[in-house]
Design brief:
40 strands, Topoisomerase II, domain 5, single chain, alpha+beta, Neuraminidase, 24% strand, 19 helices, Gyrase A, domain 2
């Protein structure tokens, strides 16, 4: 009885705790930690910005103390701690936290080193110019308002933003049992996607990704790989790998240093530097001699000095793996949708925002229509008064009071109370003829406005058109270039950093075995030597060609079907000089009738370079090198070949070189590269040389020649010679050319022609795998029409199949040749 009198109710403590915790959880989820999908704001952010708007703290007005805004937010809308409100305010002003800061700050607002902002009594703020689009038309009944915590004020439940705030600045928060982590994006890309959504209506995530390339972080950096982006956009969840930007530079003392100029988003620079120092101290990362932070107001610059003899690229890779120089951003696109938390993909997020914008425009138009109709009602009364001005004035003058005048005017002209009030409030100046004309003109103008507003409400396409126009204007005002680079293949950089730079030979056999061999395995020998035993080839297999390259170069592989494939040299199997290598079919996916006929090492895909391709039947084609910079795993079409024709030579040219094409029967044609126009990848090409007998003769080599070098011609039976370039008369493309060497039973057909410097070496490879390296200077310059001298002693049933130019690594002296007799 006593319990009932004093209002005590019995309850199960388990049920009470459960209900109380659920109420608390929903409060945290909906009213604190998660953003609304429409304006991308948490309640605290919305309240801070609205309080600044109420105080007219706009971008074109003087700054105000942060403490003044914080006090206003605490007193009116957000009854929590002042540090929580000030912390949220500070983040909105940090250019390293927000891709597009919403608050313009004056004073210390923290740093990327983790420094705290100055106390709120010291800092000053105002709304950034871009924030105007958050509040646009907020006073035109575009959004719902609700009571504050004590029902003494009202506050917007959502902002009528034109700005797609949720995606351009991102959002993060931890609620109860769920969290959100949305990355920032580029404003121009998001608006382009929204416009596409307006125009097309139905679209796919893949189509939207054509416009939205990926997150765009305020701290720049580089996103590695597309998979994380694709997962996040399709499902709402994904892990995006982000790297800081680092370059390796050489110092005057011959050492290297790593310069870091960008860090991944939300990485504390000071903590990151301390982590590197800890790894060096614990000897987990070796080779670093010093770390200097040279950052200033212009940007980040951290210098990592590398010890002499250490490989900076390998150390940089360790920093990627062991520190937050490479970081993962876990995307979790959870938002409040109609009061309920939901996981959204990129398409749904844009659709909900667009739906909000359409509703805002509809509500704004309805509000303006209502105001226009109210004004029209007043103007109709004023028009009646103007049309009967003398009688109206007389009635007012004859009235005993204002109320008496109102009653008489309502009775005489059937006016409403609002109309009569407007008439009685008219100034005497409005009775002039000019003012009467203005009232009539405004009346007509208001009629036109009402008709236009009604038309907008009746036609959804017009509402969409208005939304689109506002997006376009917003993009013109605030769009900027993308900051974060997106690297398509994340793994490529990782592997390359682990591979030490080295010079190698790449060898490819006729049956498709390929390998790379360290060049130090080959030593310079004398002319006419026996050479060193090369690859242990299978029976009936021969070395097709070899070339010198760097482990970090690219290799373009051209097939007999006119396709091209691309690899890094370090991706090719490494083997000893005597090993066979690995089958190309284990590396490439080719059709059964496809074979690799040419390979080309490429250091970089420069814009002003070309690839020159020459076929067995004498066709030549030139294509820009940059056209081959992005080759998919299945290859691309490089040239369209005639039936029975194959590629025999592929070279890189500058666009202004001289070209020499040589045939098996010893003919050679020399002409300017300008004679060959640049073509697309799928073109067939033009005539490079005319063959005397297409059934018996064929092209064996094409060379980009240099005036200061000589031409070395080599036959399959080990003979050859070098001659001056002047010996070869320059003609036009497509000519038969001149005799380059006499061929006979003794020396055999021409196997190669190449431009060689006098201080270089040349390497010969036979079909049995033997390799011989000799100095070019041991060959004296001879006349063009000779059979040459013996370069390599050929065994029975053996012939030279490849000639290449290695780099000189050792300083072993070359024994002078006493006899250099020509073969008659």
């Amino acid at each position: 009885m006593l319990q009932e009198k004093i209002g005590i109710v019995s309850a199960n403590i388990n049920d009470e705790m459960k209900n109380a915790y659920l109420d608390y959880a929903m409060s945290v989820i909906v009213s604190r930690a998660l953003p609304d999908v429409r304006d991308g704001m948490k309640p605290v952010h919305r309240r801070v910005l609205y309080a600044m708007y109420e105080q007219n703290n706009m971008h074109n007005k003087p700054f105000k103390k942060s403490a003044r805004i914080v006090g206003d937010v605490l007193g009116k809308y957000h009854p929590h701690g002042d540090s929580a409100v000030y912390g949220a305010l500070v983040r909105l002003a940090q250019d390293f936290s927000m891709r597009y800061p919403l608050i313009e700050g004056q004073g210390n607002f923290g740093s990327i080193d983790g420094d705290s902002a100055a106390a709120m009594r010291y800092t000053e703020i105002r709304l950034a110019k871009i924030s105007e689009s958050l509040m646009a038309s907020i006073e035109e009944d575009t959004v719902d308002f609700g009571p504050n915590y004590d029902n003494s004020e009202v506050q917007p439940l959502v902002l009528p933003t034109v700005l797609p705030q949720l995606l351009i600045n991102g959002q993060s928060g931890i609620a109860v049992g769920m969290a959100t982590n949305i990355p920032p994006h580029n404003l121009g890309e998001i608006i382009d996607a929204l416009i596409h959504l307006i125009e097309k209506g139905k679209t796919t995530v893949e189509q939207l990704m054509h416009f939205i390339k990926g997150p765009d972080f305020p701290t720049y950096g580089m996103i590695c790989g597309l998979k994380g982006i694709q997962d996040a956009y399709r499902t709402g969840r994904g892990s995006i790998v982000v790297r800081g930007r680092a370059v390796v530079e050489s110092t005057k003392g011959g050492r290297e240093q790593i310069i870091v100029t960008e860090l991944p988003y939300q990485v504390n620079k000071l903590t990151w530097i301390e982590k590197i120092a800890e790894l060096v101290k614990d000897e987990e990362v070796q080779g670093i001699s010093d770390i200097r932070d040279e950052s200033n107001k212009e940007g980040i610059r951290v210098v990592i000095e590398i010890k002499k003899g250490e490989n900076a690229e390998v150390i940089l890779n360790h920093l990627y793996k062991r520190t937050r120089l490479q970081d993962s951003f876990g995307v979790n696109m959870v938002c409040i949708v109609r009061g309920v938390p939901r996981l959204l993909n990129i398409k749904e997020t844009l659709e909900y925002f667009l739906e909000h914008r359409l509703e805002v425009i509809t509500r704004r138009t309805t509000y303006r229509l209502r105001k226009a109709e109210e004004r029209l009602h007043i103007l109709e009364g004023l028009k009646i008064a103007v049309d009967n001005i003398d009688k109206v004035v007389a009635t007012i003058r004859g009235a005993e009071s204002r109320d008496d005048a109102k009653e008489k005017l309502i009775s005489a002209y059937s006016l409403s109370d609002k109309q009569v009030t407007a008439i009685l409030d008219m100034r005497l100046a409005q009775l002039t003829g000019l003012e009467r004309d203005k009232i009539i003109a405004e009346y007509q103008e208001t009629l036109a406005i009402i008709a236009d507003l009604k038309d907008i409400l009746e036609k959804p396409e017009r509402v969409k058109s208005i939304v689109k126009e506002e997006f376009i204007n917003l993009k013109k005002l605030h769009s900027d270039p993308r900051r974060t680079e997106i690297a398509v293949d994340a793994g490529e950089v990782d592997i390359a950093s682990l591979i030490p730079p080295a010079d190698v030979f790449v060898t490819f056999s006729s049956t498709g075995y390929i390998k790379r061999v360290n060049q130090d395995e080959f030593k310079t020998q004398n002319r006419a030597g026996k050479g060193k035993t090369g690859a242990a080839l299978k029976e009936n297999d021969v070395v097709r060609f070899t070339f010198h390259a760097h482990t970090h170069d690219y290799v373009l592989m051209f097939s007999n079907l006119g396709k091209v494939y691309s690899f890094k040299v370090y991706e090719l199997p490494e083997a000893s000089a005597t090993a066979r290598g690995k089958s190309i079919n284990q590396i490439l996916t080719m059709s059964s009738n496809e074979q690799i006929t040419a390979m080309l090492p490429v250091k970089e895909f420069a814009e002003n370079k070309h690839i020159l391709m020459v076929t067995r039947q004498g066709t030549i084609k030139k294509t820009e090198l940059s056209s081959f910079s992005n080759i998919r795993s299945g290859g691309l079409r490089a040239v369209t070949l005639e039936d029975g024709d194959t590629l025999v030579s592929v070279k890189i040219t500058s666009g202004k070189d001289e070209i020499v094409i040589a045939t098996a029967n010893g003919q050679a044609v020399r002409f300017d590269e300008d004679d060959v126009r640049s073509m697309g990848r799928t073109a067939k090409g033009v005539r490079g040389i005319t063959l005397d007998d297409e059934d018996k003769d064929y092209v064996v080599a094409a060379e980009v020649v240099k005036p200061e070098e000589s031409l070395l011609v080599v036959t399959e039976k080990g003979y050859g010679k070098r001659s001056k370039l002047e010996e070869y008369r320059k003609t036009s493309r497509g000519a038969k050319g001149v005799k380059a060497i006499k061929i006979s039973e003794r020396n055999g057909k021409v196997i190669s022609m190449m431009s060689v410097p006098s201080d270089g070496d040349v390497m010969f490879t036979t079909n049995t795998g033997r390799v011989l390296r000799i100095s070019v200077s041991s060959l004296r310059v001879m006349g063009r029409v000779t059979q040459g001298v013996c370069l390599m002693r050929i065994l029975e049933d053996e012939k030279i199949v490849s000639v290449s130019m290695p780099s000189e690594f050792d300083e072993t002296p070359v024994t002078p040749i006493e006899s250099n007799e020509e073969v008659e």
